[in-house]
Amino acid sequence: MTESHFFFFLLILLCNILSFSTSDDVFVSIDCGASNSYTDDNLINWLGDEAYIDTGEVAAVKSNSSVSRPLDTLRVFDTRKKNCYHIDSIRPGRVLVRASFNYGNYDGKSSPPTFDLLLDGNRWGTVETSSSDYVYYEVIYVMKKDSIVVCVAQTTEGHLPFISALEVRGLEANMYSYIDDIYPLFLMRRAAYGAKSTIRFTSDPYDRIWTPFSAGEGLTTVSSNISFTGISGIADNPPPAVLQNAITATNRSTTIRLFLPLPSAQIPVYINFYFSEVSRLSPNDTRSFRIFKDNISFSQPIVPIYENFTKLYVSNLLVSSNTTFYLVPSNDSTLAPLINGLELFLVGPELSSGTNTRDVGGLASLQKAFAILQGWRGDPCLPAPYSWDWINCSSGSTPRVKALFLDRFGLSGELPDLSSMDALETIDLQNNNINGPIPDSLGNLANLKELPPAPKTPAWLAGSHVSARCSVRNLANNNLSGTVPTSLSQKKGLNLNVTGNPNLCSSRDASCLSSDSSKKPKSSGTKNENKISTEVLLAVTIASLVIMGMAI
């Protein structure tokens, strides 16, 4: 990550602040657990969630925990490593994504859970829900694809993940852009100082939630009705409703400390400060101050402008709970400092590019062939350890899929071409109802080898499709037909078990071992051997590469 930078802006422009359009094709509001669409008191159109997810159970909060209609229902998940909402057909660009959680004692246990929140194959954060209030998490980032995937993942036994609402808002390309596009910004605070109530849509066309902060001891609230019709084009576009209010000190020489929710460990942050004069000053009055960080001047003199505003931002600055920010009046100032708004973000780690595209394509073919697999969404391997339940992946920033574990998944249909998944080491498709021929491409997967030890399954996932894999028969016990492809039957070092497929030619006759009937091995012809006709293990001497099966 690049070194810290600090910038100061004094902005006087001549356009209407409300004339700038949002990415209005990206304004999605999902009421998780709801089945119908409606418009709320903020004139936001909400959609039910059934088109965005296939898993989970619907629940409702207790009546005494009602916050708003979008937060009165929720969707809770008791199976799988992660459960994901998939929002597609989004124009790639900079977006704001907000996930909200209202526990509301929906389960009657008075035990709000903690779990992980994921975004597009990246770890977003740990959700700590509350018995008394709802919580929300917000991120601003530049999309890499034309879809957005938000997942919740269980981390502790008995703590079932859930979600109440999911929102996506399009932003202008120049908003929050003083950081490389590969880094997400996780909201820590968005303050509207002096405001009497929360500010969001329609007052803010981007539907950012500005939390009101009242004046503390020695401070006072000031406000105006300025329309701000003469400014626009400012990156980050603060709404007039934020700029119309401020807090200031009652004594002109008072220093204002800004209390920020910073952790004990150092973190990189992105901060926006907004300043606007709320009244026309007399000729003899001056308001001038600086921002001090840790008792050191951190800015040029700031002179807020009436009917306009000053924005000052810092990008990628390392701070901690030991860091302090003050507004300190200049020596020649006749008025105390003031502040209207502030945004504080954690600069997250570089966004992942996701699982290797060759494997993503192969898994998509499997999901197309077998509808029962379509409920798994999001990045197949990332973030670790939250891969799909039926695969194993390599490590690294662009992992490969190394194993398919689909024993007893109820698969019905023909196997697709999996040749793109050339990192596969293990394939377990036993005990399903797979029909049709064995694809010749399976024999071209050069890395197939002996099954590794089964991954450990958390106790709370015991009811899911994750199963013990100490005995596996790869292609055994299906409804495969035809003959075993030459690419498999003549592959050196490959041990293939296809028992339990009555329509698959699997006798000791070489013409059934391969579609190439010109090469026929000698037959011993004993009576005992001829009686073993339908349950025969086809094998070539085991060398270094194996698809292995063991009797169940």
Q: Tell me how many strands there are.
A: 34
CATH architecture of the largest domain: Sandwich
Main sheet characteristics: 12 strands, mixed
Cα-atom Rg, whole angstroms?
A: 31 Å
The CATH topology of the largest domain is Jelly Rolls
Kindly report the name of the CATH homologous superfamily of the largest domain: Galactose-binding lectin
The tally of helices reads: 5
CATH class category label of the largest domain: Mainly Beta
What is the molecular shape? Answer: elongated
From the N-terminal CA to the C-terminal CA, the straight-line distance is 52 Å
Strand content: 25-35%
Helix percentage: under 10%
Q: What are the segments in which pLDDT stays under 50 over at least 5 consecutive residues?
A: 1-24, 450-454, 462-473, 513-552
Classify the secondary structure makeup into a structural class. Answer: mainly beta
Number of domains: 3
Give the SSE map.
Blueprint: E1 5-11, E2 27-31, E3 38-39, E4 45-48, E5 57-60, E6 73-76, E7 82-87, E8 94-101, E9 114-119, E10 122-128, E11 135-142, E12 148-153, E13 162-163, E14 165-170, E15 185-193, E16 211-213, E17 219-223, H1 240-243, E18 245-249, E19 256-258, E20 267-275, E21 289-293, E22 296-297, E23 309-319, E24 325-329, E25 338-339, E26 341-347, H2 357-369, E27 391-393, E28 401-405, E29 412-414, E30 426-428, E31 433-436, E32 479-480, E33 482-483, H3 486-489, E34 504-505, H4 510-513, H5 527-531
Parallel strand pairs: 2-4, 15-16, 28-30, 29-31, 31-32, 33-34
Antiparallel strand pairs: 1-23, 2-14, 3-4, 5-6, 6-13, 7-12, 8-11, 8-14, 9-10, 9-12, 11-15, 15-26, 17-18, 18-25, 19-24, 20-23, 20-26, 21-22, 21-24, 27-28
